[in-house]
Design the sequence.
């Protein structure tokens, strides 16, 4: 009987298809047999690439390059000879040291075989074809495709030496990768304009097929195991921004300031990976901030997000003369500091960050010359820079560098917060502000630096803060203080620091009148400050001593958007809450209202629901007499009673009797659902009234013990009548 092998052949064919046919990632290529010679031989046959091919053979690299898939960017002999003569003073690659030859060859080679069109797109799709890769809305220059600006070469860059400013020792910094920049025009996205390229590389010409400042004379040359793209010149080995800042005199001042924050950590992995018996000790260099650490790194981003090569860091660096003149004229000449070296690190760090636009959180791409004008800087604030401000440009391994003739002063230096920077007596608060802005990504203090929004700052001096035990441990990077409520030393968490700063800042109003009573809403949610008779009252300070207000010692109006006041005490947040006071049986004035809340079961369970999701609110508490006089209007049914009481909880607004707010507000209709009713507010200084839907009016009793309270989530107002929400 003849056996039928057809099903077996089918199964075998299916297995081979699954094994070899399912990977369509660009990194995986089956080498066709119809593409001719292997890549080095193919280049050799071109005739005008002999110097580059000779360099390959001199370092014994031919066999390796012809064994696997590669993309090579060989310079023509004309370009090679110009490089040899201009850079090394020789006329043939055989005259170069072996290490220089390795650097020359490997910095022009990229792993995997890629056509010009393929290399432009960034494969992060987990195996999809290049043409199917789609970007995310808002990233890159269009919402469609990702685009590369750089390709990782096979060159392993040598460590670079740097001097530790702390002890003068030379430390070698480990490097990770070397990149080759490419530039092109994409018809769908217009990702690069000719003017942008020519602005960065004025000695070259944009053709739509450029690698660095080189022109791809013959792109997309195919071989058996790769593509090669013939260039008109040699590409310089890209260095990280760190080495450029260190080597160029025009950046010396910036680099000197940057090195105030230099930190070195031993890199055991890089040290052990070195070849040979004698291994240098290699280090990693950082600057104590994610916004600055990238300067000494080759990699664009951490692997948290992967390598988004379409995005690049941007550095707008003032040249030394401009930066020195700025620091002298703004800080030293007016007498704030004796010399540039005396300017506090916390001010310098903010200044440096404003000039370094990192790719942190995937928010940045190349700030192209055509995009100069208004852009978001390193402190996430709007900056202005024109082409006329740019003195020179460079594309380095991890950044585009613009040498500029101006200083991009942060808003911290110009707004209501200006004295923090320019007066040494507030250095401790400046340090806290910097920590808060670093943790919150510039989302807190930035709210009082907007030139369109008037603001007020109430700030204690370093001396005042020291009286309260405020200290900073440089080694542990921890803040601590003496808790005035407990009398013990406490370490401040980042949340504590944020709340502390927020309580000292008022956004939306430049408080000028310190005599007339006014309740200022701070950045700290639900917390207000009372201002009257030239003094200041904070909730926590009142709880500690209700007879001693915080005094204003002086004011500074140099900021463009408000007034800065020095105060004689630290402002403390209130400990008392609305819940605490309503449940407090010692407060006889709230007795009858408390009984109603208890009868409705709100003090035990549902009361929290009344406050849920509210940063601040106003609770209207009728006097005992008002409740007794209106017993017939108070429902007995449990659910109706709860709805009746809910009307006394005014949502999302702390209303004080200072005449500041009048209008309509929401109150609760149901305890556990977001269903609201309206209440009308009529407000004049010392005369605050609430009117319900039926026209009943209740007036606030002016007694600071029971009304206009400074509580942690708003206030309580004692009123002379009940209100009905029907």
Sequence:
């Amino acid at each position: 009987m003849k056996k039928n092998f057809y099903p077996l052949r089918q199964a075998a064919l299916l297995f081979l298809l699954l094994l070899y046919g399912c990977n369509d990632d660009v990194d995986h290529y089956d080498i066709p047999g119809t593409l001719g010679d292997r890549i080095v031989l193919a280049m050799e046959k071109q005739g005008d690439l002999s110097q580059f091919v000779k360099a390959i053979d001199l370092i014994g690299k031919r066999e390796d390059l012809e064994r696997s898939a590669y993309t090579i960017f060989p310079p023509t002999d004309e370009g090679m000879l110009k490089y040899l003569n201009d850079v090394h003073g020789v006329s043939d690659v055989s005259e170069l040291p072996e290490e220089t030859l390795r650097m020359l060859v490997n910095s022009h080679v990229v792993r995997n075989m890629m056509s010009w069109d393929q290399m432009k797109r960034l494969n992060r799709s987990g195996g999809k074809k290049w043409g199917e890769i789609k970007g995310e809305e808002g990233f890159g220059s269009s919402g469609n495709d990702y685009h590369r600006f750089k390709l990782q070469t096979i060159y392993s860059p040598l460590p670079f030496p740097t001097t530790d400013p702390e002890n003068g020792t030379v430390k070698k910094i480990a490097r990770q990768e070397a990149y080759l920049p490419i530039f092109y025009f994409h018809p769908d996205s217009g990702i690069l304009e000719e003017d942008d390229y020519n602005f960065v590389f004025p000695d070259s010409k944009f053709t739509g097929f450029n690698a660095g400042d080189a022109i791809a004379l013959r792109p997309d040359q195919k071989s058996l195991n790769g593509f090669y793209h013939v260039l008109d010149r040699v590409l310089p080995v890209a260095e990280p921004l760190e080495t450029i800042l260190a080597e160029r005199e025009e950046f010396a001042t910036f680099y000197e300031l940057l090195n105030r924050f230099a930190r070195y950590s031993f890199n055991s992995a890089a040290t052990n990976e070195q070849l040979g018996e004698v291994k240098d000790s290699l280090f990693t260099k950082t600057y104590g901030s994610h916004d600055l650490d990238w300067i000494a790194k080759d990699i664009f981003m951490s692997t948290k997000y992967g390598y988004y090569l379409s995005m690049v860091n941007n550095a707008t660096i003032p040249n030394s003369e401009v930066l020195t003149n700025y620091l002298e004229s703004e800080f030293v000449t007016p007498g704030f500091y004796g010399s540039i070296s005396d300017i506090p690190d916390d001010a310098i760090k903010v200044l440096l960050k404003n000039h370094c636009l990192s790719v942190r959180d995937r928010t940045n791409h190349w700030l192209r010359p055509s995009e100069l004008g208004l852009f978001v800087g390193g402190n996430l604030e709007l900056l202005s820079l024109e082409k006329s401000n740019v003195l020179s440009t460079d594309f380095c391994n991890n950044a585009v560098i613009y040498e500029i003739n101006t200083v991009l002063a942060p808003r911290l230096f110009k707004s209501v917060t200006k004295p923090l920077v320019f007066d040494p007596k507030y250095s401790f608060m400046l340090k806290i502000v910097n920590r808060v802005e670093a943790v919150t990504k510039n989302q807190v203090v930035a709210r009082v630096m907007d030139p369109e929004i008037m603001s007020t700052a109430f700030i204690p001096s370093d001396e005042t803060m020291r009286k309260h035990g405020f200290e900073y441990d440089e080694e542990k990077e921890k803040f601590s203080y003496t808790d005035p409520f407990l009398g013990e030393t406490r370490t401040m968490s980042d949340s504590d620091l944020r709340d502390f700063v927020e309580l000292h800042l008022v956004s939306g109003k430049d408080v000028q009148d310190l005599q007339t009573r006014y309740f200022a809403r701070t950045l700290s949610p639900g917390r207000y400050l009372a201002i009257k008779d030239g003094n200041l009252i904070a909730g926590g300070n009142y709880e500690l001593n209700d007879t001693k207000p915080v005094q204003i010692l002086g004011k500074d109006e140099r900021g463009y958007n408000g007034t800065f006041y020095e105060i004689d005490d630290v402002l403390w947040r209130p400990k008392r809450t609305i819940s605490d006071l309503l449940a407090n049986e010692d407060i006889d004035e709230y007795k009858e209202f408390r009984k109603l809340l208890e009868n409705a079961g709100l003090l035990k369970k549902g009361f929290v629901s009344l406050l849920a999701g509210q940063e601040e609110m106003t609770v209207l508490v009728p006097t005992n007499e008002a409740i007794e006089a209106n017993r017939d209007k108070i429902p007995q049914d449990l659910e109706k009673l709860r709805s009746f009481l809910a009307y006394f909880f005014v949502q999302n607004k702390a209303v004080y009797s200072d005449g500041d707010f009048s209008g309509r507000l929401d109150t609760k209709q149901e305890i556990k659902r977001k269903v609201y009713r309206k209440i009308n507010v009529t407000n004049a200084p010392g005369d605050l009234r609430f009117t319900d839907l039926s026209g009943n009016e209740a007036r606030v009793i002016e007694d600071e013990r029971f009304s206009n309270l400074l509580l942690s989530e708003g206030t309580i107002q004692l009123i002379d009548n009940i209100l009905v929400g029907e």
Q: What stands out?
A: The chain is about 25% helix and 25% strand.
